[in-house]
Amino acid sequence: MDIVEIRKSPKIMEEALIAKNIDFDMRSFLLLDDEVRELKRKTEDIKSRQNILSKEIQSSDTLDRDILIERSKKLKDELKVDVDLLKTKENSWKDLYYSLPQVPSKKAPNGKSDEDNIVLETVGKPRNFEEEGFTPLSHMELIRLNNWGDFERSSKVSGARSYTLQGDLFLYEQALFSYTLQKLRSKNFKLFSVPSLIRGEVFKRSTTVSENDSYELKDDGSFLVPTSEYILTNWHGGEILEEAELPKLYGGYSACFRKEAGSYGKDTKGLMRLHQFNKVEQVVLCKADDEVAEKMHLFILENAKELMTDLELPFEVMECCTGDMGKGKHRMFDINSWVPSENCYRETHSASSFLEWQARKMDLRYRETASRKVKFVYTLNNTMLALPRTFISLLENHQEFDEKSGYRVSIPTKLRPFMGGEKYLKSNN
Questions:
Q1: Which residues are within 8 A (CB) of 85 and not within 5 positions of it... i.e. 6 or more apart?
Q2: Is the pTM of this model over 0.70?
Q3: Chosen CATH of 25-97 out of 1.10.287.40, 1.10.155.10, 3.90.226.10, 3.10.180.10
């Protein structure tokens, strides 16, 4: 929220803090805000008095000039003390202000954790492998059976939670990204391949992944990028766009790096939680209009649903509650795909609307065509494809078995042209 609006209606922010389970002392923040404003007023007053003294010194005689100069020196010393204090207080104020959450949408369900999220729709029906007469293998078993990856050697050279893809599974990864990027291109997204490094100050003003979960390069303060969203939402940081340029639709391909701090012992086997993975992200910059933002939010969600349908995967769409959506998000949807070996749905996509929360930190603005008024841009993003996590569902849901061929994995029909027309992935044995 605009700080002016917070001062007028602090209760709105207090309710947002409660809804998102965020521990924040609003009373102390508002007291600090008052201190900063008073210090600003005081320093401006001293500067004004200095200007008056300066003019008086120029027009005074010698005797008066010495007295006035002495007063000017005292004002200068007083100003330095107040300016130094103001700088300290302003830095503290800024840290607190930027840690305030986005006010959640009234349409978002209230809740404390992912247990309070709501399933909006279920698409497709999970297969009944028992009726088909065979016991399905997990994605890890299928990968080992076909020599599509070597987790042991990968761990030996790169550490835990690393992976390698080999043979047709590697080609399949490339085919999936090619298909996904072509789909975004057909929907008028501008495609980017982004750097793996992001400057520290850029990272910190755009972060939705905590610093504790990100890799920092201590020598220069840069970070390995956790998601291409960080690059693309900052692409126009510090600029004033024209309304006619909006919305901007950006599709970013990148390697993503995350420590997965705090998740040790949870989902550590297979391809679910990795320190490095590849992803295509949808990023939208639009004008500050709630209806437009909602339309864009549903648009990027629909793009991901369309891809999941093309991949012939059963999935569910879930709306995240206030306590599970994260600090900066106004509204959030997840797409969870079916995992046969776990007999449940697991998250593969997350579609988020931030309104102006990110743009304020990036100073990302636009000028309205009619009024010429400058406003903050609204930002949104959604995963389009995250690999190799999506392989969990792809391999397990598309496995087949017969006495002659044994276990094999079929390729969704729309992906086959990107795999040389093949119907099945070839074993790498």
A1: 39
A2: yes
A3: 1.10.287.40
